[in-house]
Amino acid sequence: MDDNDGNTHFGFRTVPEADKAGMVHGVFSRVASKYDIMNDVMSGGVHRLWKDAMMDWLAPRAGQSLLDVAGGTGDVAFRFLRRAPGAVATVCDMTEPMLVEGRARAEAEQMTDRLTWVVGDAMALPFADRSFDVYTISFGIRNVTRIGDALREAYRVLKPGGRLMVLEFSQIPNAALQWAYDRYSFNVIPVMGQVIAGDRESYQYLVESIRKFPDQETFAGMIRDAGFGQVRYRNLTMGVACLHSGWKL
Ligand SMILES: C[S@@+](CC[C@H](N)C(=O)[O-])C[C@H]1O[C@@H](n2cnc3c(N)ncnc32)[C@H](O)[C@@H]1O
After folding, report:
1. Which of 157, 171, 195, 204 is the most exposed place for a label (fewest CB within 10 A)?
2. How much distance in Å is there from the Cα of 105 to the middle of ligand 1?
3. Ligand 1 pocket member 205 (CB < 6 A)
């Protein structure tokens, strides 16, 4: 799925590969202060259920170390730590304003001592080989320029026996439902972005990037290609989103 002609996609636009990260950074810098409220409004709160389903399948255990990449404001890391006494989490994201929002939440929830916040790129993680028990990436990987590179980095930083779990928007395997969902996405979400965050363009990118992301089987194949074993996926809300799991065996 990674383009190899020097170009890639930014939503429905074709852009030079070298430009994409800066454009994605621009989107998330602009939306950071409204990111959490927009997630609730756009999904009617359903993103919380999906993240809870992620934790149910992941089954965090006491003392584990989590790396949450593209972790933004920390939703996944907070959930993980609440379920795993004595666990620690590192949230890595390339957009510092998102991490700043997350750090403020950690202070409010008195979780600062179990969390580390690191600015870094999913395609070149600033961590040593075999550092973490669990790697998560939630609604992040579709924004990454070279998805294969990010998955290989996930494999590198996991300890042997470590677990990868990806939560991402996906493709609905039913044409009528996909049609209805597209109407909602393309007509409603950018307008909500304009009204709530004063930024229509960023939310237009978000819905376009969802449609560009590979389907469940294709993405599972990419996870296998990065070296993971026991690759499985579970659709959420009929395939609107999907959880992908793999192990570093
Ligand atoms: C939609 S937000 C997801 C935040 C959080 N994981 C969640 O589920 O709510 C996507 C995040 O991915 C980050 N991101 C995009 N590309 C990245 C990359 N190459 N490396 C690290 N973070 C990246 C953005 O900065 C943004 O914070």
Report:
1. 195
2. 17
3. no
